[in-house]
Amino acid sequence: MKPHYILLTCLLMMAFLDLSAQTIPVNKRFGKVSKEELELSSYDLDTSATALVLYENKWTSVHLNAAGAFNKTTKTHTRIKVLKEEGLKWGDFEIVYYSSNNNHESFSGIDVVTYNLDGGKIVETKMPKKYIFDEDFTENYRKLTFSAQDVKVGSVIEVKFDCVDTRYWNLEDIYFQKNIPVNLMECEVRIPEFFSFNKKMSGYHSVDYAAKTESSTLQSSGDSYVYNIDIDYYSAADVPAFKEEPLVYNYRQYYSGVKYDIKSLQIPGALYEDYSVSWEDVDKNYLESDLYIRFKAACQFKDETAAIAAEATDEKKIEAVVKLVQEKVTWDESYAILPEPLGQVVKARSGSNVDMNCLAAGCLRELGFTVEPVMVKLRSTGVLQNYQPELNPFDTFILRVVTSSGDIHYLDCGSSKGYLNVLDPLMLISNARVLRPDGGSEWVDLTRLCVNGTNMYFVAGYDPKGEIIGTLTIRYRGEDAYLAKLDYASYADEDAYMEDLEEDFGVEVVEYSSTGLKDFSDNASEKISFTYSPDASADLVYVNLFIDPFHSKDTFQSMNRSCPVDFPYPYSISYRYTLQIPEGYAVEQVPENIHITCDELKASVKLVTLADAHTLQAVFTYTQDNILGLPSDYENIRSFWQHLSDIYASVAVLKKM
User: Fold this and answer.
1) Starting at the edge strand that comes first in sequence, how are the strands of the sheet with 508-515 ordered?
2) Residue 291: strand, helix, or coil
3) Which H or E run includes 11?
4) Residue 218 DSSP label
């Protein structure tokens, strides 16, 4: 090694070590927990923290094993301080890992120790190996679980383990941020020069970086080959907890971290493999897999499908097919990417959403429809960037059905709460991919497939005895209908639903009826008759125009925000309020008319009130077209939400004459 190279490496390492200084000094060796760490009762930088990562170290190396094949080894060491009762859960560990016939991960060296103070002395409690459980999880995956022993508030928990993975190209995403603060995290990644990786940083907290190169020797057929190992060092200190905010579907995509995507493997004169992919490569991978074979399988219900052909319209035929599949097979509430053999699904009478979608596809083709799979990455697993191809980016697929007249419908058979073009909000993504075998695959936007909204009509009268007696009629459309059905289905029975409704509205329900809340449709409605007592004095009655706000004032409590605001879909609200004024009363005061807009959300809210001798009326409308608000827009969005809260507090005053 040349002298100037040695100097450069030393300078880089010194800089790295200096940058990694942490607020709470820790001895980084396993087992070297100090009395000061155990006496720590709160974290000065975040006194609300329920637990704190005192130290974490990840060491990852791609290397040759004894058999001459590449492997990946990752060593993990984590030390956690429990600060509050809610932090006890950090003593439980769960690892879902890959295990198939061709490739697998294997874990070893699992060591878990709990440290407590007893009479001023440090007491160690080791976890016995019998508390390590390794079990099947899903196809090609297993789950490893274990728990630290004798964990209490004040404990320090330390865990370490090694993982060897035959999928050397699959480097685990590294996250320096969690939903609890991190005092210090260090990471080392060692990659032979034969490999080329793309590195993508994420998040908003700064991460220190340094690099160096070491030489090593490769023995092959009696020959020696000297090669370099590229080493990346990362360090992050005093990383704040990622605060969980409303309207975020996947927190992890906003954590500060780094992701490695393999590009190529090249051993001069021996091997070259190109791992970079295009979307055409991704399409081909799915089209040549069991996914597409099972999607194209023959109709499993030919007799029932033949009867459906008599339905009057294409939409009724499609609807009848979905109902048929849902009668034959119960959704197991899982989303999958690979369907099971359809005969097994029919026999089991239970399956994932794609099992049911494949069954529906066979029936729809039998009826003459063009049916295509639409590949979807669920919003809960992060945003898909269509300019960054990945080999296996999708979580599931739905159906695109084209009628003889050219009408297009998207559907997912998994949930009975949806309909044609009404999907679970998790599927409402802007980059879904229609898979076609002729090379014509294309991107489609699923966020605006239908009209979404809620219309409400409130008609009431004020009884001189002091009660408002009214009827509220609610009509839901599109995604609003989906969520209304989902909410209704979450209750054990209608009585429980009524109890919650009375508590939310602050009323006594006299009569209730609904339509469509259990149907496969794009709409639903409710009619609620109720009574309640408004605030009143000797001569004045204070009437709130909104018995239940449409937006919560608590949604945006944080003064600032580092991640986008992710609304599920564009929607509108229309609300009409009519109150009959009894004899002997007059309207003393009505809220001012209001019209406010939010450019960032393309949202508008209006309130118009009218009153005469017999009637008090109010018309409220809300529309929102944008579904994503950037962190830079947050201040204006939060201010707009506060204006909404003020509107919902609007009060009209009746005066006794």
Assistant:
1) 508-515, 523-532, 467-477, 453-463, 571-580, 615-624, 603-611, 594-598
2) helix
3) helix 3-19
4) E
Distances (CA, A) of 16 to 13, 58, 204, 236, 304: 5, 16, 20, 10, 69
Count of CB atoms within 10 A of residue 611's CB? Answer: 18
With tokens 């597409």, the residue in question is 292
Nearest-angstrom CA–CA distance, 438 and 450: 29
What are the structural domains, with CATH classification, of the chain? 3-274 (2.60.40.3140), 280-443 (3.10.620), 453-656 (2.60.120.1130)
DSSP 8-state class, residue 91: G
Exposed/middle/buried for residue 99 (C-beta within 10 Å: 0-12, 13-18, 19+): middle
**Residue 190 buriedness (CB in 10 A; 0-12 / 13-18 / 19+):** middle
pTM for the model: 0.86
In whole angstroms, give the CA distance from residue 569 to residue 418.
14
Residue carrying the six token digits 């260090």: 186
CA distance 293 to 306: 23
Residue 478 contacts residue 422 (beta carbons within 8 Å): yes
Task: Give the strands of the sheet with 121-126, arranged side by side.
Answer: 121-126, 105-118, 156-165, 70-82, 51-64, 182-192, 223-239, 208-220
A 10 A CB-CB count for 401 gives 25
CA distance 606 to 8: 65
Half-sphere exposure of 561 (CA within 13 A, CB side): 24
Which segments of 333-402 does DSSP mark as H helices, in order? 342-348, 353-366
Tokens 């060692």 sit at which residue? 190
* Number of other residues whose CB lies within 10 A of the CB of residue 12: 15
Average pLDDT over residues 174-203: 94
Compute the C-alpha angle 411/412/414, nearest 5°.
155
Q: Is the dihedral of CA 533, 534, 538, 540 positive or negative?
A: negative
Tell which residue, 331, 335, 334, has the closest CA to residue 345. 331
- Express each pLDDT in 353-408 by its tens digit: 999 999 999 999 999 999 999 999 999 999 988 888 887 899 999 999 999 999 99
- Is 470 exposed, middle or buried, given 0-12, 13-18 or 19+ CB atoms closer than 10 A? buried
Q: Where are the alpha helices (DSSP H) in 35-137?
A: 35-39
pLDDT in tens, 72-101: 999 999 999 999 999 999 999 999 998 988
The DSSP letter of residue 89 is G
3-state class (DSSP) for residue 570? coil
What is 480-509 written as a DSSP string?
HHHHHHHHHHTSSSHHHHHHHHHHHHTSEE
Could you give the count of Cα atoms lying within 13 Å of 5 in the half-sphere of its Cβ? 6
- Summarised one tens digit per residue, pLDDT across range 264-280 is 998 777 778 888 889 99
178 to each of 90, 238, 416, how far by Cα in Å? 12, 12, 36
The CA distance from 24 to 238, in Å, is 9
